[in-house]
Records
---
Amino acid sequence: MTGKNSWPFKIYIMLIFAFLYLPVVVLVLFSFNESPIIGVWSGFSLRWYESLIGNRAVVSAAKNSLIVSLSATTAATFIGTTTALLMERKGGFRGKKTMDPMLYMPLMVPEVVFAISLLTVFTLVGIRLSFLTLILGHVAFITAFVIVTIRVRLAGTDRSLEEAAMDLGANEWKTFWHITFPILLPGIIGGALLGFAISLEDFVITFFTAGPGSSTLPLWIWGTLRRGISPDINALSTIMVLVSVSVVIIAQLINRKKL
Amino acid sequence: MTQHIKLAPAGTPQAGRFDWGKLFLGLPTIFWFVCLIVVPLVMTLILSFASRDAYGRIIYEWSFQNYIRFMDPLYLQILWRSFYLGLFTVIICLLIGYPLAYFIARSPKNLKPLFLMLVIAPFWINLLIRAYGWMILLRYEGIINIFLRRIGLIEEPLQLMYNDGAVLVGLVYVFLQFMVLPLFATIDKMDWTLLESAQDLGAKPFHTFRHITLPLTLPGIIGGSILTFVPAFGSFIIPRILGGSNSIMIGNIIETQIKTARNWPFASASAVILIVTALLGMLIYVKFSGRSLMGGD
């Protein structure tokens, strides 16, 4: 490695980190403020958290968020695993080369376009906007992320173990269950957690595909924001920040342990 | 891949029979890919040529009228704003992201995961919440104005929100990680001995950067730029929260046409224009950068 970092460079990097964390710190800080005026500190208090627990709209939105993200993640993980296996392990099939880059289309198409396309289809086919459309919308969006994660894992594994099992007479199913799947498991869990985190925080797809009565937490924040800022949002945001960051840390720990 | 195909049928009696496993694996993929991705996008393309009646119902008479309507200076100006805000987002993200990625790649091995985690963590926070954080800072009675008044730099609060600058700050903030991660991946993989030999041979730091570091990390720059440009260009939450009615972007046209004007065909045409412009921009960019995406990988 080359020499030490110079002082101006260090200061620049510190400023970047300050830029990254300033909004978050301010947001969290004022969720514990006594006064409802954000910007003037008047003492520590948990009153905004208490008011959240008593807010029925928030509690039901939290429940909806969990239901939607858990269902969507389950489906997306299943589809993601089979697709990754299909692309990496199952020989060739017609059109594989064309399909390969297209699998990543959802990552390249702006989310708002993707969202209104889904809305269009649901409406034209005649499915009323509901939990079902919301979950399908999330599945459509997060599956690509799951596939990427699992494929990275699959491509990085040594295939000689699988070949050895096959040579020793294990059939395809046995080979998969005893060799491929255990190797793949950290990738699957990592993909699922990634999908869950993305689904939980998704706003755009939700905004267009949710029906009446299936409001999630981001939708509640959006609705409340339009009436101006409020410490309630700070408190909820702080909880959501904690949840997302813990999910990601757990994902990291699982990955490190198994590798 | 070919080796595996040769090996499998040799030992198994099912050689030559229909591969049920392949079908089982294929069905979920087909459902997801066809029903939830291809069909919706194609439908949007088709719908962009339709029109609507006074009640917002879709009339299946095909024409280019939605595209012609978009040629109005009002909409073209919004398209142009989306484009340059996207472009500036990429440039600022590069100026912030490159030194940051370089710093992390060069830091000691045991600190690398920690720094990486510190950079990625804000990305896991809901986009709305991050935009809200900036709202608290930038608004008229916001923290920055309070602070500037307290230290006596200004007498009257500044209007920091509801302009292109605020939108730009928000876009850079929420999409920076898309730039840092690909950059980190290429800088981290870089062959550092090349840099050392260049230095040993007496090359000036700028020359080393221009002729070695920059070409070696070009795939990361291209990848990061595309990953940053597309969502920034198509964003509608950030301009809506931080830009208000002064900094409308193309994503906001789509949103209003769907949610309030109820003109789905026009919204679809705007969506098609958004995608085509983004694709064209990327193609020109990749060509201009002198390497294809695939080749750079």
---
Amino acid sequence: MKSFLRQLKEGILDNNPTLVQLLGMCPTLATTTSVQNALGMGLAATAVLIFSNLFVSLLRKFIPKQVRIAAYIVIISGFVTMVELLMKAYLNSLYQSLGIFIPLIVVNCIILARAEAFASKNKPLPSAIDGLSMGLGFTFALLLVSTVREIIGNGTFCGISLFGEGYAPALLLVMPAGAFLTLGCVIAAVQKIRNMGEDKARMEKLSQVEPESTEKEETV
Amino acid sequence: MVNKKTVWSVANIGLRLLIICLVVAALTALVYAVTKDPIAEGELARKEEAIRLIFVDAADFAEDPAIVGTGVNTAFSVTDAAGNALGWCVDYTGTSDYGGDVNMMIGVGNDRKVIGVQIISHSETFIDRYLDDENRYTGIDQAYGTDLSAGATMSYNAIRNAIASVEKIFAVGETAEASDTAPLLLMGGNVKLLFADAASISEEETVEAVGVNEVRIVKNEADDVLGRCVYYTATGGYNGNISLLVAVDTAGKVIGMHALSYYDSLLYLYLDENDCYVGVDQPRDADVQAGATRSYTALRNAIEAVEALQLGGA
């Protein structure tokens, strides 16, 4: 359980694929015009991550290392096609609004990166959990960016009007340039928070070390 | 000499990759089998919804097999609750070089003008710029080229070209108030211009010959065969090919020709107000002056080529 929670924290916060590793930038920029789109994209990518990680892990001893990338791509594209078909059949309005970005999950580097870096070296269960944590991390990043873009750029949240008709939305934020600006600001804010946390930890460590060094100086 | 070990190693890798591909394909096929019906039902529902969005008063619609043409999947004649014809809705697939085909429902009013385009499926993100919340194309009243940056995207062009093609298919004859007075269309040409009593055209007949694109049997209301209509491309016209609908009677003789498209500005000299060739009954060299133009020669060659096919018979 501890390990499960640690892995979840790793994917969502400490090693977030989008905000820390800066992977999967294209769908982050393109599908964050609304919170609904971001959530749909994030969950679709999470499903692909979980199943592709699980499948790669199950076949890790069977996949020849010379053609492992080709094998991963076959597996990932298969699961993306399955997710696409399921969305087309049962979540059609979401499928229509996400459009081309669903098939483009195939080339999302987070999925290939996790298959190569984690699933190919670990057992099925930890690999599936890694897929879940990275997928949730990706979804969290998308939600963060889309919330800012939708509220400021459209005056709505999940399609619900927040400020009434008098609000003049900053349309720039729902346009492509706005995606870059918002993502840049969100990454900067996340880095600042992480740095603050690290600084605090360093300071605490130093404060523990300091008394010993003063004692040594006194002896000298 | 190739090392046996190397051959086995390569074969082993290939075999393993093949097994992975087969397993993934089998799983995908399973999901496809489960989702096939809901997807088809969803698409049909979206098309029906599109008809109702384009024609607000639509109460009923029926497939109209007479309307055919490149890109046309199915055409529906649409009526209101009182049974009055409102127009047609064409299920059209436009080709785009950018991100795959664009499937759309194109509404055509009784005045034969496109009144609405509803996008059913597309694979381009940028196309949303031209659509409203209900996937309706918003630039229907604008002239092509109004938005210069739009022209740079292939899918925009696919929509504009689809509108032009559908209007071309319908741009013949008088305004139809009811479906029974509507022209019988084949490749945008009115078959009734060639066979006045035509009531239906058959499925495509297989005739393989240079220039012959389609051959269909034309029947009257009593289901008697009046002849055949040949969609023919005549080469050698001035400035380019001439697309023709050629009418052949049951004896295999050409009795009329309707020009669908041509690039010779002087071709009108041989055509009536409906773009039908006026000299079918004349011998080839009756008009000496006309014989000097390449397009005239192309028309005469088309008559000879189609008659040579001996398409007579009921």
